[in-house]
Write a structure and sequence with these properties.
Number of strands: 6
Helix content: 25-40%
Largest sheet: 4 strands, mixed
Strand order of the largest sheet: 3-5-4-6
Structural class: alpha/beta
Order of helices and strands: HEHEHEHEEHEH
Distance between the termini: 26 Å
Strand content: 5-15%
Radius of gyration: 16 Å
């Protein structure tokens, strides 16, 4: 899901930065063998979604950049599970995403925390999403927030976190040894 990106490194155009972050996430998701990638975007982000989408990739235009509209779009398209991932974590390893989907055999909802900056990297659930699942954005969402509306706290499980690039301090956490994040590397001069 395309999320707001309110900052860019010095000397880097904000639109180019946001596009590079999102394109790196899309490239990773498109290569996963056991998943079908799509882009969820609010109307004002439709052009960016079309710019970074792979040929034939679904683009879901959602009313706002929150989890429930994205999950509803995937459900309407016939999927039985979905994960909504923030498009500002360009070096997220594929195994982190696999760990987000794995608990759905026994848990209603799985969340991956967004690292030290807070928020969530992603949310996964079987579809249709449970009626008790509160709508939220990935910047302010948390496992605790979702557990408040769950019938039982154990219905929401947390998986390993992965940080998002939400501010300048997060740049130092990029792992140059990880593959991927090519577009982000180029903008950072590496």
């Amino acid at each position: 899901m395309l999320v707001p990106v309110p900052w860019s490194p010095p000397g880097v155009d904000l639109h180019a930065w946001r596009a590079a972050l999102a394109e790196d996430v899309v490239d990773l998701l498109a290569r996963l063998a056991q998943a079908e990638a799509a882009i969820a975007a609010a109307p004002q982000d439709r052009e960016l979604a079309e710019e970074i989408a792979w040929p034939g990739m679904r683009i879901y235009e959602i009313s706002q950049a929150t989890v429930l509209p994205a999950l509803a779009a995937a459900a309407a398209d016939g999927f039985d599970q979905a994960a909504v991932i923030a498009a500002d974590a360009p070096d997220v390893p594929g195994m982190i995403l696999g760990k987000l989907l794995r608990p759905l055999d026994s848990k209603a909802v799985a969340v991956a925390p967004g690292g030290p900056s807070g928020g969530l990297l992603g949310v996964a659930t079987s579809l249709p999403a449970p009626a008790w699942l509160a709508d939220h954005d990935l910047d302010t969402g948390s496992a605790q927030l979702l557990r408040r509306t769950a019938p039982a706290p154990g219905d929401v499980t947390s998986t390993p976190p992965w940080r998002r690039l939400r501010g300048p301090a997060d740049l130092a956490t990029l792992d140059v040894a990880l593959e991927g994040w090519d577009n982000t590397r180029v903008l950072l001069g590496g």
